[in-house]
Amino acid sequence: ALGALALPRAEQISANWKGTSATGASTKNFIGGEFVESKTTEWIDVHDPSTQTVLTRVPQATESEFKDAVDAASQAYKTWSRTSVVTRQKFAIELQHLLRQNADAIANSIVLEQGKTLADAHGDLLRGLQVAETAIGITSTLIGEKLEVSKDMDTEVRKVPLGVCASIAPFNFPAMIPLWTIPMAAVTGNTLILKPSERDPGAAMIIAELCQRAGLPSGVLNVVHGGVPTVNDICDAPAIKAISFVGSDRAGKHIYDRGTQNGKRVQANLGAKNHAILMPDANKNLTINSIVGAAFGAAGQRCMAISVAVIVGDSSAWLPGIIERAKALKVNGGFEQGADLGPLISPGAKDRVIGLINSAEEEGGKILLDGRNIEAPDGYPYGNFVGPTVILGNTSMKCYEIEIFGPVLVVLQADTLDEAIEIINQNKYGNGAAIFTQSGATARRFETEVNVGQIGINVPIPVPLPMFAWSGNKGSVLGDIGFYGKSGINFYTQNKTTTSLWKAEDAIGNRASVVMPTHH
Ligand code: NAD
After folding, report:
1. C-alpha 170 to ligand 1 mean position (Å)
2. How do 432-436 and 454-457 pair as beta strands?
3. CA-based end-to-end distance of the chain
4. Which of 221, 281, 416, 449 maximizes the CB count within 10 A of its CB?
5. Catalytic residues, which ones?
6. What is the DSSP string of 416-464?
7. pTM beyond 0.90, yes or no
């Protein structure tokens, strides 16, 4: 999609963030405007999931490096929070331009470290780039409110920044998720500490370098690497006022609990199980393409993947078509021409997905298409590949209850629309759900009665563009304020109200009033 915009050629990234220590390539921290090699003794290897080659290693940042980052962010906050909104807007304008110019470099890094296909990696960036683009509107979206509440008395509401904020990212969208937070936090006047996923930090590092080139002053964005110890440091640091988290339920619950107990504002986007209802009247081609694309794209490693298809009525009308098109998808290394899905992120993730398919078989599910033992693609004997898998199952199976996060579609059958909606509403997650139908009345009922936050009508992955906000619900989120859009502005600001009275000298009486003012 980015290519269609006739972009200038990708510029060469300086790769200041890449280290070369005695034991191989490393990824630096970014603290106070400098890319600095960590002094840690604990490193985490980053693998190419198509080959297992070690690409780089990320440090488990030391306590003192973390403290340096918090100090740099606190120092930078003093001046950044006082810059004019137009200066901050200019940063977003420059950033979106640089992201476009360097799209190829970012996408290549994503394919290498995360494994998704090149076209999909461009989509990953595009969805983040769109957040930077909407952040340009900050000169309008930050406008406050003012009302004359009484004679000569005004109340004014300003949206002011929070301070130092933190963003903790997952592996599956290495560009999009850091970009959900960096532009929004920065244009609202905050400073940020980003902890990318330790499994694919490269895109975040390129973005950090581009932020610097876009004119972001030193210390406004800092990147520290690591696993749980860095996360806990973020939850505990008194200077950090808010945390944005995207990732698994387990980590999100921990971060939400620990962060809020320490008085921080926390927004946490968690796991999902997204259902699509297939009505008998739905357009065949559109529906099958949509289900297969949304179930198996990115090897199912999307929080908005369709992982459950609920067929209302006769499933024999749908299953052969779904299986045929799923079978036709090419599993291959992400850089290969024609690849439809790449590998899973790690051998552990592959084992876990295969284990869940096995459990479905043990529980009486029918494996209609089996991707467990697919032949390794040419040239990739060691990749973490699992092929598209379709399971005819039911709601009491483990493969239905747990988020699989792999290329697996569980198919359920329902007799009526009511039954299908009830299945979705009983599910603990609430990220998204879709319906495929040609009936407006059916779509309307679904939209009204289904309890999830993001609804698709003949649209399989109904993620709102960033002028709207992320709106997953139920077990898919913790916290009240969503990412980006108006919610993003609200998350990164607090309201400050000023009430002022300006009276003419001769209108001021000579007696003090002790009753509550009634604003006549
Ligand atoms: P993850 O929870 O393993 O990792 C996310 C971040 O949390 C990483 O930075 C990691 O270092 C840290 N972390 C991991 N385990 C932790 C722990 N026990 N305690 C504290 N911190 C921990 O998630 P992941 O595997 O990288 O990402 C996949 C998950 O993210 C899926 O569940 C997916 O649905 C979810 N996700 C949700 C959304 C959304 O918007 N709802 C978007 C993308 C991904």
Report:
1. 4
2. parallel
3. 58
4. 221
5. 303
6. SHHHHHHHHHHSSEESEEEEE-S-HHHHHHHHHH---SEEEES-SS-PP
7. yes
pLDDT in tens, 98-136: 999 999 999 999 999 999 999 999 999 999 999 999 999
38 SS3 class: coil
Phi-psi sector, 263: left (phi>0), alpha (psi -120 to 50), beta? left
Of the candidates 333, 295, 300, 293, the residue with the CA atom closest to the CA atom of residue 113: 333
Q: How far is Cα 251 from Cα 256, in angstroms, rounded to an integer? A: 8
Residue identifier of the C-alpha nearest atom 30 of ligand 1: 247
In 3D, which of 251, 139, 260, 136 has the Cα closest to residue 198? 251
Look at the alpha carbons of 205, 211, 215, 221 in this order and tell me if their dihedral is positive or negative: negative
Helix (H, G, I), strand (E, B) or coil at 90: helix
Q: What is the ipTM of this complex?
A: 0.99
Over the stretch 277-291, which tens digit does the pLDDT of each residue have? 999 999 999 999 999
Sheet with 432-436, side-by-side order of all strands: 366-369, 389-392, 408-414, 306-312, 274-278, 432-436, 454-457
238-264: average pLDDT? 98
Nearest CA to ligand 1 atom 14: 251
